[in-house]
Amino acid sequence: MSLDILKNIISDFYNVPLIQEKVSLKDKNWFFTGGNASYYVEPSDIDGFIFALDFAKKNNHKVFVLGQGANILINDKDFDGLVIKPQLKYISIKDFDDEYSLITAASGVVFQDLINKCLENNLIGLEEFSGIPGTVGGSVYINIHYFEFLLSQFLHSATVIEKSTGKILMVDNAWFNFGYNNSTLQSKQYYLIDATFKLKNADIFKIAYAKGRRDEIIRHRVKRYPNKGTCGSFFRNFYEDEVTLESGGKKMIHVAYYLDKIGIKGMLRVGDAIVSYQHANMIVNLGAATTTDIITLVRQIQQMVKDQYGIVPKPECQLIGFKEYPLLD
Ligand SMILES: Cc1cc2nc3c(=O)[nH]c(=O)nc-3n(C[C@H](O)[C@H](O)[C@H](O)COP(=O)(O)OP(=O)(O)OC[C@H]3O[C@@H](n4cnc5c(N)ncnc54)[C@H](O)[C@@H]3O)c2cc1C
Fold first, then answer.
1. Is 197 in contact with 143 (CB distance < 8 Å)?
2. So what's the pLDDT on residue 6?
3. Over the stretch 262-278, which tens digit does the pLDDT of each residue have?
4. CB 67 within 8 Å of CB 138
5. By CB atoms within 10 Å of each CB, which of 130, 168, 222, 329 scores lowest?
6. Using 50, 70 and 90 to split pLDDT, how confident is the model at 89?
7. What spacing in Å lies between the alpha carbon of 2 and ligand 1's midpoint?
8. What digits encode the pLDDT tens for the residues 149-204?
9. What are 282-321's pLDDT values in tens digits?
């Protein structure tokens, strides 16, 4: 009997998730780059999540919680620690009042599946985020946004697990301290177990409109942006105090403005990593790019913006497994 089979039997017997060794992360993120995780686990319930954190604590391992990998860039070198990919998938709905309902979705639910479930159950609001890849966990972490909509506008409450103690906490919207690309989860001291959204009950006409909106947004995104081998927008927009350039009395905070001006779209390339011809803020792996190629390309972009405008674009994409910050600061 192989060691892997034996481990499977033991994990089944004790009803704990299987902790695997040396698992490739390349096929678990949207850039399709990166090395192996020393340890890897997919807990499917809260007890499994607690077990995984306990394993990491006892063995002094670093922890990284992975969603769909749609907003990360993983080092080519192995991740020396435990990668936890939550497979908690429950969704439940209950009444709030005549106008609203509460829908709770576990961290491992794919966000588009949640949107579809809402629409099937006559709940509207989240369809504005249609076509954004990722899980509920990753989406709350970054507070996903699309035009004027932020996920935090809909989040009512959540269940989180505290990393150091494994304690389960029920928290409200204020606890997250949400902002643009910002939430308390980014302290990495807590992980999302599930999130509850307060959504409007809708009649058949409003639901038909919302479904049309979902389909139209997805169609628009597929036409307008690359949707393979990328993490979406690589850089975040600037904060007002980071820029001096103004137009019509308003600070030019949109990073895409600066990236468009330096003329890199579809042109700047390192190995198989290229700036998308569709969007200057999206980097695409054409097939064989490594994370090192992407980092080299990103540094070139940062340097070009710095030379022309004196400011350095900062990543929205999360950099995973780097001992030292690999980009320009
Ligand atoms: C083609 C494309 C288009 C995109 N368009 C948009 C867009 O329009 N708007 C937008 O906001 N984003 C966009 N993104 C970015 C991405 O979709 C979101 O950031 C998404 O929420 C990432 O979710 P994920 O599950 O893949 O998270 P991952 O990429 O796996 O992880 C991202 C971060 O979330 C953390 N995380 C994941 N799960 C948990 C958890 N349970 N608890 C605590 N932390 C957790 C991770 O540790 C990591 O730090 C786009 C990405 C792509 C590839």
1. no
2. 59
3. 999 999 999 999 999 99
4. yes
5. 329
6. very high
7. 36
8. 999 999 999 999 999 999 999 999 999 999 999 999 999 999 999 999 999 999 99
9. 999 999 999 999 999 999 999 999 999 999 999 999 999 9
Q: Is the CB of 72 under 6 A from ligand 1?
A: yes
Exposure of 301 in the CB half-sphere (CA atoms within 13 A): 34
Q: How far is the CA of 13 from the centre of ligand 1 (A)?
A: 34
230 CA → ligand 1 middle, Å: 12
pLDDT tens string 216-237: 999 999 999 999 999 999 999 9
Instruction: Tell me, in angstroms, the distance from the centre of ligand 1 to residue 207's CA.
Output: 27
Find out whether 79 and 33 touch, Cβ atoms under 8 Å: no
| Three-state SS at 269 | strand
The closest residue, in CA terms, to atom 47 on ligand 1 is 65
Tokens of 166: 């494994």
Is the shortest distance between the CB of 191 and ligand 1 below 6 Å?
A: yes
Domains and CATH numbers, the chain: 3-84 (3.30.43.10), 91-224 (3.30.465.10), 240-320 (3.90.78.10)
Per the CB < 8 A criterion, the answer to whether 291 and 75 are in contact is: yes
Q: Is the CB of 149 under 6 A from ligand 1?
A: no
**Which is nearest to 19 in space by CA: 1, 2, 37?**
37
**Residue 319 tokens, joined:** 């950099």
